[in-house]
């Protein structure tokens, strides 16, 4: 019911308005103990608003699949942080980067999985979030939907793996390990089995959004990235997030 209300409300907005959506996936984005928006991408977005001379806008936190649906349907919808993949690129407008993510296959160390090709994945149960890049990369690579156990939230992905309901999970490596520790599990008991891909995380705009608005946003983001405030912000999160594409990486998916 809440999502239906959000959808009806979103469709009634003026076409020129930008409406910001995100998910609970710290330390990148989420809500603090008092319900306040928090995380690296939220703080970065606040700097962009300041650079553009705009007041802070509401950020609506939804399960990722719901935010993804609104991104595809609502003119002016902005969803962050969205992985900028080759398959997604032509379907949206983009302002980049927020950070860099490695989408990896993570398993329990005791299981000692060895993954050298996609064929090794076919007999396994792989956990992922619905409509997340970890799920979409597997589907785009030809992994059968029946082999992917998709859930709404990252904490559910972690719990599936910890309780051995899945063999591996496909997810943002940094965010998954952060969630593992946050839920009280020992990160040392889990390991990266293979890296599927790496890409920038970005602000994704519905394709019907005025391109001039997106360009103005992108230019403000680039100016922010040259500032001392940005350097201070990245230093704050440097032990939890990655901000540089690795040239030496050999991902499973080319």
Automatic annotation (TrEMBL):
Top-level lineage group: Bacteria
Protein name as annotated: ABC-type amino acid transporter periplasmic binding protein
Signal sequence bounds: 1-17
Originating organism: Aeromonas diversa CDC 2478-85
PANTHER family named among the record's database cross-references: PERIPLASMIC SUBSTRATE BINDING PROTEIN FAMILY 3, SOLUTE-BINDING PROTEIN FAMILY 3_N-TERMINAL DOMAIN-CONTAINING PROTEIN
Alphabetical list of SUPFAM superfamilies matching this protein: Periplasmic binding protein-like II
The entry's keywords: Signal
Annotated InterPro entries: Solute-binding_3/MltF_N (IPR001638)
Ranges for domain Solute-binding protein family 3/N-terminal: 23-238
